[in-house]
Structure formats: C-alpha cells, structure tokens
Amino acid sequence: MVWLVLLCVPWLTSNEYWLDTGIAIATFAVLSTGLNLIYGYGGLLSFAQVAFFGLGGYGAALLVTRLGCSFWLALPAAAVIATLAGLLIGYSSLRLSRHAFAIVSLSFALLCGIVARDWVSLTRGSMGIPGLSLPGFDAPAQMYRLTVTAALILLAGFHVLLSSRLGRALQAIKLNEPLAQSQGIDPLRYKLLAIGASAAASGVMGALFVFHLSIVDPSVFDFYYTETMLIMVILGGAGSFWGVIGASVVFSIVPDLLRFSPDLRLMLYGLVLVAAMMLFPGGFAGLLRQRSLVRWRTRR
Amino acid sequence: MSLLTVTGLTKSYAGVQAVRDLSYDVPAGSISGLIGPNGSGKSTSIDCISGFLRPDEGRWSLAGLDLTGMSAHAMALAGLTRTFQTVRAYGELSLMENLCVAAQEHDGIGWWQSLRRNAMCRAADAAARTRAEELLGQINLAAYRDAPAQVLSYGQSKLLAIAAAMMARPHLVILDEPVAGVNPTMIRQIEAIIRALNRQGVSFLIVEHNMDFIMSLCGQVIVLDAGQKIADGPAAEIRRDPRVIEAYLGVAEA
Prior knowledge:
The structure holds two protein chains of two kinds.
Chain A: H1 2-12, H2 16-41, H3 49-67, H4 71-94, H5 98-118, H6 120-123, H7 140-163, H8 165-175, H9 177-182, H10 187-213, H11 223-236, H12 241-257, H13 265-279, H14 283-299
Helix pairs in contact in A: 1-7, 2-7, 2-10, 2-11, 2-12, 3-4, 3-5, 3-10, 4-5, 4-10, 7-10, 8-10, 11-12, 11-14
Chain B: E1 2-13, E2 16-27, E3 31-35, H1 42-49, E4 57-62, E5 65-66, H2 72-78, E6 80-82, H3 95-103, H4 111-116, H5 119-138, H6 154-166, E7 172-176, H7 184-199, E8 203-207, H8 211-217, E9 220-225, E10 228-234, H9 235-240, H10 242-249
Parallel strand pairs in B: 3-8, 3-9, 6-7, 7-8
Antiparallel strand pairs in B: 1-2, 1-4, 4-5, 9-10
C-alpha cells in the first residue's frame, strides 16, 4: 500500500526537489534503521555505518566502471563487500568489549575516507568517479522509484528481523548481557548478525545513492552522515523501529526547511536538537514508553 | 548418583587464592547448599562453574558431560543455568518476554525458521508461552504478565529470576543468594517454589548466608572457608560440625 502510494509521487509532482528529498528520506531511513539495529537494539555504538554506505557506493562504482560489471550484479556485490567489512571489524573488536567496537568502527570509517582520498590510482582521489549512470533509470522519477522500492524492501526485512526472536535476543543482550549468556544466548553471534544485516542494507543504499548522484567521491564517507544517523536514532528513540523511521523523515526535511535563513540555519538546527534532547531525552519513543511505565506503577 | 562433579577447582586473583583445590559433588535430584563466611570463595567457585570466570585449574562435569572451559551460554545449553546475586532482569521487557527469551535458545529453532516464523517456530513459541504462564502462576505474578519487569519489587524480581532460570528446562540451577534482602514472607514463598520445582526433577545448588533457609531446604551442605572445603555432608551434621562453628563464629580465646 505505502509502496504504491510512494511510487505515484512522481506523477503528482515533477519537481525534482521533492524527488531528491524523497530519495534522501528513503536513504536515511534505511541507514538510521541499520544503526538502530546495531545501537538501539544491540547496544553497540557504531560509527562505521557511513563506511558501509561508502564502501557500497565505491564498490558498486568501481565494479561498474573498472570491470564493466552490470549494476544489477554490482548491487548485491556492494552488500557483500559492506557485510564482510562489518563482520571483520565486529569479529576483531567484539571479543574485547563494546567500547573496543566503538573505537574500531570509528577508526575504520576514518580509514575508509583516507583510502578513498589517497589511493588515487584506484579511486581517482578527491576527483571521485564521475559519470555513473544506470541505463533505464536515467530520469529522476525512475531513480526515485528504484530507491524507494529498495528502501521499503530493506525496511520490511529489518522489521521482520526485529520482531522475530532474533530481535528479542539482541534486546536481551543489550539490556543485560550476562543474564542473556546464562540463558544460552551467544552474544557474539547475535551482534555479528546485527552488524552484518545492517552493513548489507547500508551498502545497498550506498550503491543506489552514488548512482543517483552519478558520482562517488570521498565525501560519501563524510562524518555528516554519521552525525545525521545518530541524531535520527537518538531523537527517534533508540530501540524503537517506528520512532527512528519518523525521525528519519523529519530530520531529512528539517535542514532544508531551515534554508530560508542560511546564516541562522545551523544555529536553528542546533536549537531544534537541544530542545528535543531536553524535552525527550529518550527520544519520542522513549516518551511513550515512560507513560506506559507510569501506568503500570500507579496500577499497583 | 552425582549430577555435578567438581574436581580440583583453583582460582587466584593477583596472588590471593580465592578457591583452592575445591572438589565436591551435587547429587542428582538434590537441593544442595554452598555456604561459608564472606570471602570464602563461594561466588568465585560458582562463577567458574557457570562459565563467567576462567579458573586456573580444575575440571567439572554435568551428568558425565565435561563442561570445563565452556562459555557461559554453552553451559546453559548443556543444562546448567544460574541466577545472580544482584537482581538481573530485562527491565524494559515484559515479564512474559523475560521468560520467553530465556527459553528460545533451547528449542532447536534456527535463525532461518525464526525469520520465516514457520509452523515449528510458532509451536515452540506457544509452548514457551504456556510454560511461562504456568511459572508466572507459581510465583504469583500472573497479573503482571505484560508489565515491564522494572516495575517489580526486589523480592518479586528474585522470583522472576528463578522462573527465568527454569525456562530452559535445566538439569541444575545454581541460585546465588536467592533470599538475601528478601522479607520473611517472601522467603517462605521462594522456599516453597524451589521445593515444587525440585519435585519436578530439577536439582539446585544454593549459595546463601541465611542459615535457617539453607538448613530447612538442603539435604546436603558444602562449607567453604578461605577458599577450601572444610565440611561436606547432611545438613544436620554440618550444623554440629566444630570446624563449621569455628569458621562462622570464631574460636573462644584460650
């Protein structure tokens, strides 16, 4: 249903601005839900989401331009590359601690940016790889439909995962890891599952996003994406599926709405964030959870 | 017949031997007690046996299966579960979810089946819910089935922890101070629940400071002092054992 409605949007408006915003929302919804899976449900702070996104983008771009791969082959390959990277940093750091994972993921994201900038013979450095095009999807409306379809499939996949026992086990690990272990839950397996699934989805969105822009350059690893994802997850309510989706929509649009005043834009954005953090420290979803708690406590 | 067999368990922290060459058996079907003064190595020994600490030496097995060196989750899968001294529950999850999550690794449903939520997975979920209802009834918390666990009182949380440890249908449950800080009425309730579960075939190893609780509940009692076993036998004998009295009460000045 939602899918059909969203696919009709290009007929309602031929304004490319709205289609671009739609693509941004779809992309950020998947990216921040991926972070929500790892951080909100699994309790692992990951700075590497942007690396999975960028690796997917660069992976697909290089496969298509250097090896002449079809995009439809490069898309799953982007997912595989991102997943392998995720499992690598996850497996190497999680045996130590959650903190080790946060640090390794941050270092990895920074490293990816540096490699993209400095390995000029492969990536053309800061000039990027231009001229990415996807035959049959050249028009903005078609790219929009493709991105939205992919995003909805991935979000549906996340929803199935999170509402299954696997999501429940992840939550248990986050809430009390020793207790989960004493019940037979293997934390490492579940954390790697979360990282792998999240990296795969981010990689796919990365591949789609660079073909939408028709260029990939090192800015795809920019800290801006990490920051935006964190804002969406924290303000939407870490651990709440719909809260984070809602925040992805809002915070994909808000920065643009504030464009009326370029000088004050960043300040206004900051004010919105500070106000939200003060009013709902647990995110919007946290606010609802608090209410249900009060209901149970007063019933006694 | 012995269910848990521990031999030669030794664990040191920076030169201090917390547990020294400890060996004991927990008979199948029994409720056994592990007592000793503070710092005598009770917690260290059960943390080792349940896979949360790695001992320097020693082997232990459950019903003939060697558990030495296994990780905590593998032990749970082998049939040994535990509760913790500090109350542990998933505060944000409902009581029902707290119990169901404790059962999910034990019914042989794989990841792919969980994602597809096929008939086998649904049947296993339904079985877990039935078992959880039954246990919630036993611990008198059926009314709080859908409440988040963080609304429970301290004593109620301890009951929930015992119930959660039962969800895996374990052979042996180690209870770490199940009645410390719990009011007398609730203590009798916990005692009754342990007896009822024991009649269903579950063996218990209980670490506790409350002597009345241990003496009325346990058939066999193991006494530790300074990391070593100083006595091991039926509760009635242990109560009169001069070494036990000495360890707990000290020796009169000559």
